[in-house]
Amino acid sequence: MNYDVVVIGGGIVGSAITHKLSTYDIEIALIEKEPDLCEGISKANSAIIHTGFDAPAGSLEAEVISHANKLWPDIIKNHQLAFEKRGAVMVATSEEEKHIILDKYIMNAKANGVDVKWIGKEEILKNNPAVTREIIGGLFIEGESIIDPWEAVYKFAEVAEQNGAAILLNKEVKQIKSSAQHFTLIIKNGEEIKSKYIINAAGLYSDAIASMIGDNSFTITPRKGQFIVTKDKVDIKNIILPVPSAKSKGKLITPAVFKGHLLGPTAEDIDDKADRSTTEEGFKEIRKECARLIPVSINYTSVKQYAGLRAVCSEDDYIIRKSVVNPRMIHAAGIRSTGLSASPGIAAYVAEVLIADDASIKKKEQWKAELPQQMNTQTDDNEIICLTRNITKGEIREVLQKSVSPANLDGIKRRTTALLGECQGSCCIPKIIDIMEEFHSDGDPVKSVQDSFIGYKI
Ligand SMILES: Cc1cc2nc3c(=O)[nH]c(=O)nc-3n(C[C@H](O)[C@H](O)[C@H](O)COP(=O)(O)OP(=O)(O)OC[C@H]3O[C@@H](n4cnc5c(N)ncnc54)[C@H](O)[C@@H]3O)c2cc1C
């Protein structure tokens, strides 16, 4: 197979880049090692679209988040993404925290062109009665919003695919050979894929991809963030943030678009890029720190815990640049805590770098900005399968019919939100597997049922 551009990595960054590049008149492929998209960092985060109020002023991160915020409204409309503009409050519980907000965050937000204002205790408590009475005021960031982070990845890829991009799953890049004209990517199964350009969007493994061409200019290490999900009533309208520490934004409490609330994340530097385990210590730490913001949260029931891994980079800022070894590899790496928010901005930036390098890359005369049409329907589509979230058979069939379709139960959960209720799928798993069998009729039914459990954690 020969492409003009291969994007390595089917997370939010790679999908957004593929989506953007699919509007150009080039042959493009998105390559992902897992059997589905959104299996890396992008599957576990706080699901907040940040304004960039706290991104270091003058950084590339601040620049691309700012640009992304201009692009999101059209993307949300065209891709029909679940999105709520909630606003966030960074709460101050001491004069010291108030000064950090006034001296640091208000100045920084102004430099980044983000609207923020100091608001008093009464105003915060009016919208967020659950917040501690110990507060003395806080910073209101109106534009902070919540989104379905998984749908964002899938829909970028679906729209890209209908514009001609190839989405290639189960293709782990093991080796890259460079010649004067092109790269040859050697896939785990021995297959070879040629491409003139490579966009390195491999998240935690972007340093490994760079080193495959001898570029050891940066390293990526994992920083774990554990979360608790609660379905208890949390009386807040806004996202509630602490004043951050030097290491992380701190533990927040945020509504989720799937209903329920997220508490966390922790910030633990670890060695293993595959360690997404949750721990009793993490659970206790989240409870303790969130109770400073919302005292009753100490008693919230956790219906689920999960962990994500931030890609901490040896450089302070995002790395979006040509490789120092071969300029036909462009890195989109070190995208640490804000990659979901920044993704359309990163994609636009990458496209600019590419076009500046190759004037022959032209915009297509026509491309589709919206999602593909609805799928086939059947008479029993209205049968409710997930009782807690009212998900129908038709909704599950619809995602299974898509060209970028789920490979297992986890993929169904992320696309339909079935299995996300308090019961965590205890009632609907058998029914969902039956529906999956309709789409695996030519395979071994026992194997496909087993496969559907792979990677699925209740
Ligand atoms: C705890 C936590 C909270 C966060 N909260 C937010 C938030 O609220 N808002 C926000 O904007 N951001 C948030 N983020 C950051 C955001 O989630 C990340 O910046 C973003 O998901 C990074 O996406 P990515 O595409 O770069 O990486 P990934 O999603 O990891 O994608 C990279 C892909 O590359 C694939 N890959 C790797 N190696 C190979 C190979 N050799 N061959 C083929 N494929 C390969 C991987 O399988 C993976 O799917 C948070 C992150 C964490 C961990």
Can you put this structure into words, describing what you see?
The structure is a single chain. This protein is an alpha+beta fold and 458 residues long. It folds into three domains: 2-45 and 149-218 and 315-357, FAD/NAD(P)-binding domain, CATH 3.50.50; 88-142 and 221-313, D-Amino Acid Oxidase, subunit A, domain 2 (D-Amino Acid Oxidase, Chain A, domain 2, 2-Layer Sandwich); 384-453. It is 31% helix and 23% strand. It contains twelve helices and 22 strands. Strands 1, 2, 9, 10, 11, 12, 19 and 20 form an eight-stranded mixed beta sheet that branches. Strands 13, 15, 16, 17 and 18 form a five-stranded antiparallel beta sheet that branches. A four-stranded mixed beta sheet has the order 6-7-5-14, with helices on both faces. A hairpin with a 5-residue loop joins β15 and β16. α1 (12-21) crosses α8. It binds flavin-adenine dinucleotide. Flavin-adenine dinucleotide binds at residues 8-14, 31-34, 39-42, 45-48, 50, 172-173, 201-205, 209, 225, 265, 308-310, 335-341.
